[in-house]
Design brief:
The chain is α+β, with helices and mostly antiparallel strands. It is built from seven helices and 14 strands. Helix 1 crosses helix 5 and helix 2 crosses helix 5. This is 2-oxoglutarate and iron-dependent oxygenase domain-containing protein.
Amino acid sequence: MILYAPPKTASRLPVIDFADAFSPDKAKREAVAWEIHKISRDVGFFYLVNHGVRQQLVDGQFDWTRRFFSLPPASKAALDMSHSPSGYGYERMGAQALDVDSPADLKEGFQFGFDIAADHPYVQQGSLRYGHNLWPQDLPGFREHAQRYYDALRQLSHRLLSVIALSLHLEEDFFEPALRTPIATQRLLHYPPQPAKTAHNQIGAGAHTDWGLITILAQDDIGGLEVCNADGDWVRAAPIHGSFVVNIGDLLQRWSNDLYHSNPHRVLNDKPLPRYSLPFFQDGDQAQIIECLPTCCSAERPARYAPCSIGDYLAAKVRETFGAAGVAA
Ligand SMILES: O=C(O)CCC(=O)C(=O)O
Ligand SMILES: [Fe+2]
């Protein structure tokens, strides 16, 4: 359990202008990579602007998200994630405790992933987070929009990881093989206002690190996301219209031999209004082995972790935070 202590107000997260990441000029792409390198070794979180995703698409996804959470409880319950062998679908209020020793999170969610053929071996094996998306039947148009949003975010995650490869002195396409058949999950989250009285240390999302490679988060204008910086101080990630908040996840920290940081964050909605957010998690192919990157280990800095597969790492995290509720037996 990480006890809640209020954030400092003075500091704020850095902003990365991503326009030059799309430049044909490699020197310009390298300049963006260097900024990302510095931040990733420190707080591991940044706002991303000029990222190429149309604002209309993001706004539309928030509209569909509000409509989804306004569905009658029975419609949402019919999509409960326990019905999907992949753990996709509806996450009821209190289903997850992201900070494992704390009370359940005060949020409800909906998650879906990569649209993969039903006869793909990963789906046939019942692998976590492959196939078995559940879609609401009583919201025509929801699925089509969600998939357009997902495609845009997936593309952006590829571009980000190509710049991150550059930032680690790797070929720009280094991560591509790990992204072809990915565990890439879009969550839609709803946080009601924090009640006046809750269980000890119960908030919207308990302090946690993200598990995958990178997370790309759209948040509405309510605020509530708080990030722990390298000094151990909590900093508010106040909403910046038109930006995404991007952060490094555990698997990239591990792959980079702790050079890059996957830092804790949490959510507390202290406004009297509901908060919605849309985190996209790019976690990579379940079969990919995470083993110290060639540019991140040396005689002075030997590999700190035993090799492990992405699939095994994520399955352990799902078990820890959802208990048996996250995946069909
Ligand atoms: O809702 C947010 O702002 C953050 C959510 C989050 O950290 C997560 O789902 O991992
Ligand atoms: Fe998170």
